[in-house]
Amino acid sequence: MSAAKPIVVGVLGDRPGDQSALVGVMRDVVDAAVASGRIDRPVQFVVDITDGLPEGTAASVTAGFHRLVAQDALVIMGPTVTDNGLVATELADEFRIPCCNWTGSDRTRSEWMFHYQIGSLEEEPHLIAGHLASLGHRRVALVQDRSPIGNRYGSFFENATERVGLQITSKTLISPVSSDLSQTVRDVRHGEIDALVYLGLGLSAGTLGRAMAEADWHPPVFTNSALMFGYAFPEWVKNWEGWTYVDAWSEKNTRLQELLAARPDGATVFPMTVAAGDDMGRLLVEALAGAEILTRAAVKEAFERIKCLPATLGEPGTTLGFGHWDRAALKGGFILLRQWVGGRSVPVS
Length: 349
Hints:
Rossmann fold, five-stranded parallel β-sheet, 2 domains, single chain, 39% helix, alpha/beta, 349 residues
């Protein structure tokens, strides 16, 4: 095995900063498969961190993708933000290279682009609307990012509210990189509402929380998976007290709990990092070990053959797999409701 040339796995990052935690878990899973002989040659991870949308540019993501292709990547993992996933999906098909992103939208799927769903722009709105209706709320104000992510969330939320009988009393579009939303809060709070709903990437959710705290306005707030930013920015959480949001990890998932217990940082590490890294690492192992020949086309076909892997993300019973024209990895209860209470994320029963 030592004489064999390594398999190159590209990782396309789209936000500046440290990507090592999730990639590290993914790499550990693949290295273990190499050590056991499941994969018969070394695997080299090449990480390219770009400055993607919404703060950066699509051109930066495109350039990073080209660099990974030029380094003979057999498969590319990433990116993570839907805006950049839309860019990379076209490139995956253009270069005919198997890729797996971890964005939130089903629009980031194609013949060559697979999708590990950390959240769902299309399904989260139905979960939120159903929960609002179950609590007896009927009139909601909507604050929504003016972006592909916000627009996708919003259109599905409107469908969901019609289904369960909610009324959107106002809809306010904001920049996904807003730095001041005090006027938005002044405008929205004048309406008679039962709850406020925020839908977007999540950077502006921190700004919204600060503006609401400064205005001393505390209606019930419900959001999409945007509030997972609270794990990375705990200073935002103090303004999200009691806010209900969509998350994807569960204390009831025994596989996740066993992995966390085995880690020296298990009590402090972001559970999503471990869950997503483990799942995507195992998807990589199945695709690389299952390829009849180490070509990009054969790896794509091996991805399509993955079935019924127990998922580390989501509730018990969630599984991983793809298929012919099936590009969604997670099956079952991979999204759930949580709430920020006392600086901690707790499950909503």
